[in-house]
Sequence to fold (367 residues):
Amino acid sequence: MMPRLQVLTPVFPPAVGGIESLTHGLVERWDGPVEVLTLEEPGSAEWDAGSRCPVHRVRNVPRGGRKSIARLTYAAVAQTRRFKPDIVLSMHVRCGYAAALSKTLSGAAWLQYYHAKEVPTWPGATRLCANRADQGVAVSRYTKALVQAVSPLAGPLTVIPPGIPAPRQAPERRHARPTMLTVARINDPYKGHDVLLEAMPMIRDKVPDVRWVVVGVGDRLPWLRNEVRTRGLTGHVEILGLVDDAKRDELFVSSDVFVLPSRTSDDGTSGEGFGIVYAEAAAVGLPIVAGAQGGVVDAVQNEVSGLLVDPTDARQVADAVTTLLCDDDRRARMAVAARQWSRRFEWDTVADAFQELAVTTLHRTRR
Fold:
């Protein structure tokens, strides 16, 4: 029988995000008993009613604040005594204190996930997790390096990327206009919308009918709309804001190039820990232009699933985009290679790797 898994996470569906998606994917594919302890979210009662496993929530006021994390930590004590886990999985360093208590109370093996920017943001919590957890899991080599920089004495640390669903079928593209697609939050400057705005006139010079479709919402959305108007790009840029999954999938299939030149900061507090959207683009055979920084270099294989460039250099970004838009044969070859590359990120592979690591860690701690 598979071990009993206790999952501690500050975020979980119906909230939307990378950690939420990763946690849900691991929980859904765990072969043994599993329970989740997390914070309340709007609509969580309806979500939890349809969950395959028990989800326990604690009050989330202020949202994601210290008091909410403290409540989660206290609740972990009661859940541990009742559930008696064999393995405790902490999905964020802020849950490390709860995981440490669970390990002490139950003797469970402790696995700790790391994503990226939380590592330098909460260095004390990261050091606690890195030094006391039985096994760490980083979503990329970049994230692993961030953990080791904060905690040189970190214990075992394995890289396992996030998972994506296997594509249902090979897509057929439509080519009404050469189309660039960007899907990302419009909250953070590091996503590279500013560099793409600089690159657009250079792209337009070589591809006069180019269209840039932007999906995403955030605090900087008014700024982006204003910049498009000010720069005279309204005939070439379509900002869709928030779209549903069906529309998002349609855009992936109907576009020619996925473009997201994310960049990292020197202190690691901004940038892609991995960038699951790059794997999703590759899975449908959509060639990628991305920044050669952070966890993106694990998500995109240069010259195979896409082209990696200096994300601060608008000329390099423009040249990479036009190279792909103007070379149908190269784009077609890259589409085939991208689908092949993306298979390593499919959920069956990722979930198997995590379960094997978790069980191996449990056996190691019980010798």
